[in-house]
Amino acid sequence: MAGVTDRPFRQLCKKLGAGYAVSEMAASNPKLWDSVKTSRRLNHDGEIAPISVQIAGADPAMMAEAAVFNANKGARIIDINMGCPVKKVCNVASGSALLRHEDLIARILDAVVSACAPLGVPVTLKTRTGWDRESRNALRVAKLAENAGIAALTLHGRTRADLYTGEAEYDTIRAVKAELTIPVIANGDIDSPEKAKHVLDYTGADAVMIGRAAQGRPWIFREIDHYLRTGESLAPPSHGEMRELLLEHLDDHYRFYGEHTGVRTARKHIGWYLDGLPGADSFCARMNLIDNTRDQWRAVSDWFDTLSRDAMPHRAPVAEALMAA
Ligand SMILES: Cc1cc2nc3c(=O)[nH]c(=O)nc-3n(C[C@H](O)[C@H](O)[C@H](O)COP(=O)(O)O)c2cc1C
């Protein structure tokens, strides 16, 4: 997820049970490769394997070049984005706009797979169920992908026109899975271990991909993993563990982005972690005014200390007296 699944966050998710995590989308246009943003997105130093980079674009030759460039930078899997509905991406007929041009899809897939094959780098595809509900062509696109040598397909159960509204549907994913021999990964609105199990059972998919539900909740991966293996729910993390994980995330985040960008881009993550906890809204309003990483880290740390103190049950006077004795 662009702007979310940066290296520190992917690393944390992988540590907490994610079997696999794809980089933020990287532009296929070479003119952008030297930008700070893109070079950050292409930094995989110390990342837990396998390193997978998503590329977006509409020009087959440029996409092939971008795939090779990323493979040479350490990507062991290349993922092609045909699912992003963002205007910036769609206006140049990339992302989900490609779903209206099946001939171009085939040329892009062929070009990227042919370029990556000599490097031993598999290519995967991420897409939606179609341009709109009247033209759901996921099955045809999936067949094109399989014939082109795509190694796995991730399908978000919405059309481009749906954006992120309504509920993801899993019938199309189920139909696609029934027709393909390559692995199919189901995606969309999976936000609990129970939902993950339901979607796996219903679609027959080989795996599930989690997006927004992992924001501020990277431990969802171990919860899902545990539930799928044992049928039992894992207890949620204590406030103490949440505090540790968030502070560790912040340390890594600051190292990765530096002082100026680090303090600003950390705010949304902190907001996601704290969402729903008592007093989080007023804390976040204050925390968002802090403009240096040291004070931000300290504020988060202190806030959790207060939270734990307030959550302690009030001791009965007898217990108080016994302890004093
Ligand atoms: C902020 C944001 C950024 C996203 N960026 C990307 C992206 O770069 N590439 C991609 O394939 N999907 C991207 N997505 C879509 C997600 O990967 C996923 O398909 C979608 O959110 C549905 O899954 P979910 O309900 O588990 O979040 C993005 C979604 C969000 C909310």
UniProtKB/TrEMBL annotation:
Catalytic machinery residues: 84
Domain DUS-like FMN-binding: 1-296
The keyword DNA repair is annotated on this UniProt entry: no
Chain residues that bind FMN: 54, 126, 187-189, 211-212
Catalysed reactions listed for this entry: a 5,6-dihydrouridine in tRNA + NAD(+) = a uridine in tRNA + NADH + H(+); a 5,6-dihydrouridine in tRNA + NADP(+) = a uridine in tRNA + NADPH + H(+)
Protein family: Belongs to the Dus family. DusB subfamily. Belongs to the dus family.
Name of the molecule in the record: tRNA-dihydrouridine synthase B
